[in-house]
Amino acid sequence: MVKARKYVVKRYFEGVPKRDDFEIIEYELPPIQNGEILVKAEWVSVDPYLRAYNNFRFPVPYDQFSYQVGLVEDSKDPRFPVGTRVVSHKGWCDYSVMNANVSNSPAEIIYKLPDMKDFSNSLGIGAVGLPGATAYFGLLEICQPKAGETVVVTGAAGAVGSLVGQIAKIKGCRVIGFAGSDDKVNWLEKDLGFDKAFNYKTVDVQKVLKKAAPKGVDCYFDNVGGEISSIIIGQMNDFGRVAVCGSISSYNDDFAKLPKATILQIPLVMKQLKIEGFLAPRWRDRWSEAFSDLYKWIKSGDLKTREHVTEGFDKLYDAFIGMLNGENIGKALVKI
Ligand code: NDP
Fold first, then answer.
1. What's the pTM?
2. Per the database record, which ranges form the Enoyl reductase (ER) domain (predicted)?
């Protein structure tokens, strides 16, 4: 018998999730059956969507899902022998039993982690995982940036945003990022090669963007929503493209009581903009294509990755709240 621990979300969050909204449950896993594998979690992800999905009111309590990288410790599935590393959506647990034969829903996804060679396996929940696929397909499929165009990204120093800006640079674009601290701005400009970055908390976004993008914005990768997005969309060029990836500025709000939006129809019509929301699993059958490019760019040094690592299963809640508060530069994750 293996002793396991998992986080259960007990109730719907009100505002910022509280420690008491979660409960750590200890239990014994049954011996594995044919077709099953026993997996020890090594890297567990904390993501904004864990907060957002709680607002959709699916039944509570539920086990806290998220992506994780784990090591197969026992196996009755020849496709996943002992020692294999797998990426799954088992979330905030230290040990779990998985069955790849029933992994036909996003919630039950299990796949082998590609060999990361000299790089950390944690990339499997970062640049070579969901955030990587999100940045890659959101930017390249929806914004379709062309060399020489101006791309703006918000949440620019986070897991997704930092990749979006660098992929846009690889594609020959001019890149402007908005993030929430001067340290993040420095990292974007000095280390990642963004052409310009701004601390949205201290600048007049309208003004600085006019100056940084005097010819207007062609593509906007929206990670945060809210007023900053309306300002950016107001400065777009004819036939500009907006990929709506997330809206973290409102995840802690009651979705029924969000403020009225700035009118966007005028720039949408007059500039003939395309604005499209997306979920990365739309391209699930093509993720390996993204991973192969992303890994190639990481190896060549064209794409830099950074992680904000918190250590310990008991620290998952703290890491989650820290990420929501903007403490992370790059991908926020927990080493178990
Ligand atoms: P990040 O690594 O970017 O971490 C979250 C960041 O959000 C924080 O570091 C903080 O940075 C910023 N933030 C927090 N509150 C606010 C606020 N009120 N206004 C503006 N920024 C805020 O997370 P991810 O890269 O994982 O996710 C980024 C976005 O992408 C999220 O909206 C997420 O939901 C979305 N997403 C969408 C997917 C899809 O398939 N559509 C898949 C994965 C992610 P700062 O200091 O800059 O404020």
1. 0.97
2. 18-334
